[in-house]
Write a structure and sequence with these properties.
It is a single chain. By secondary structure, this protein is an alpha/beta fold. It has two domains: 163 residues, 3-Layer(aba) Sandwich (Rossmann fold); 158 residues, Rossmann fold (3-Layer(aba) Sandwich), CATH 3.40.50.1980. It is 37% helix and 12% strand. The protein contains 14 helices and eleven strands. The strands form four sheets. The protein has a four-stranded parallel β-sheet. The chain has a three-stranded parallel β-sheet with strand order 3-4-5, with helices on both faces. A two-stranded antiparallel sheet has the order 1-2. Helix 5 links the parallel strand 4 and strand 5. Helix 7 runs parallel beside helix 12 and helix 13 crosses helix 14. The chain starts with 13 loop residues before the first helix and ends with a helix.
């Protein structure tokens, strides 16, 4: 289902739908097939795009930030230096539940995007959300943005859709290269050496990502074994555990997004007997300019995958993560940084 699920308040919309649909009609339209096999008629030339998903917003930013007509949520103040001012000045319209905001239909109609691009999650499609949005007369397109192994195809699709083929090829080629490198390295690691991983998000180390959570999909790609075998009861795939459960798991590595937990874990006696703590293998996922390990999922996961694989298997996947961070930020964000600045991000400073 879509990133789930946008509540679309369609009050007062029907009166303007016909007008908006007429204004959106392009005499030189074309029919495309989106990434979920839906036939959609779109303008031949697309210059204004909106997405209700932060995940797709980041993909579009890297492809061409000038295409975006608005954003589902603003960038955090601490991260604005990585983004163009014109992007930071875009209106905030809200969108999916991941933004914590409802979509502002009135403002959406004012900005008049040529297309709406949605995140189709797990190969299915939220027809109700799509149908509500289609009533606005805006072509609705679904793309795959759930896992890093989809992003090469997604960049190519967006490049063809938005007439940005050359730029899309740069980004998709990078994605395929990195995925190929990691896959080849991990394939050589015998099962007996695979590292067990406990992935805690927030909550003092006791909130964990289930194996089927999109927040945990880098773990198996990096050759790790996720020790939280639950089937997600909620869309995020995050479950609350207790200390006894974690002690029984006894992970060889702990991956966390919780800076406070990371700061205190080596001083907390409750965690002292766990293998990951004893061997100093607790890792804080970098979070600048967007979290490398999801929240929301994004193509930062391509960098996160390299960092995690190198952290778990430094000898099998030797990688200069500082240099890779510098190169990644230049390619995807057109942002220049020094190795020292990259190191601060990697260390969580």
């Amino acid at each position: 289902m879509l990133y789930r699920s946008a509540f679309i308040p369609l009050f007062a919309v029907c009166a303007v739908c016909a007008f908006f649909a007429a204004s959106a009609t392009d005499l030189h339209a074309r029919e495309i097939t989106d990434m979920y096999k839906r036939k959609v008629t779109v303008p031949d030339r697309i210059t204004r795009v909106y997405t209700i998903s932060p995940s797709v917003m980041y993909l579009l930013y890297s492809l061409d930030p000038d295409l975006l007509a608005g954003v589902p949520r603003k960038i955090q103040d601490s991260q604005t230096q990585f983004f163009k001012k014109s992007f930071l000045d875009l209106p905030e319209l809200g969108g999916s539940s991941g933004t914590g905001m409802n979509l502002n239909i009135e403002l959406l109609l004012k900005i008049k995007p040529d297309v709406l691009i949605l995140w189709g999650d797990d190969g299915s499609y939220d027809e109700k959300t799509a149908a509500n949005l289609e009533k606005l007369g805006i072509p609705v397109i679904a793309v795959a943005a759930d896992s890093v192994d989809e992003y090469a195809d997604t960049f190519e699709f967006l490049g063809n859709l938005l007439n940005r083929e050359n730029r899309a090829k740069e980004l998709s080629d990078y994605a395929r290269k990195i995925l190929g490198e990691v896959k080849a390295a991990v394939a050589k690691i015998p099962a007996a050496r695979r590292v067990t991983v406990y992935n805690t998000r927030v909550g003092g180390g006791l909130s964990a990502a289930c194996v089927d959570s999109h927040h945990a999909r880098l773990i198996p790609l990096a050759g790790g074994i996720n020790l939280v075998p639950c089937v997600s009861k909620v869309f995020t795939g995050i479950e609350n555990l207790n200390m006894e459960q974690v002690i029984l798991m006894n992970p060889a590595a702990i991956l966390t997004l919780d800076a406070e937990f990371f700061k205190n874990v080596y001083k907390d006696n409750r965690w002292a007997g766990i293998s990951a703590v004893k061997s100093k293998k607790v890792y804080l996922a970098p979070s600048v300019p967007v979290n490398w390990f999801g929240g929301p999922p994004s193509h930062m996961g391509l960098l996160g995958l390299q960092w995690l694989t190198n952290s778990l298997y430094p000898q099998d996947y030797p990688k200069d993560i500082e240099k890779e961070t510098v190169d990644f930020m230049k390619l995807f964000f057109q942002h220049d940084m020094t190795r020292q600045e990259a190191r601060k991000i990697i260390d969580g400073n």
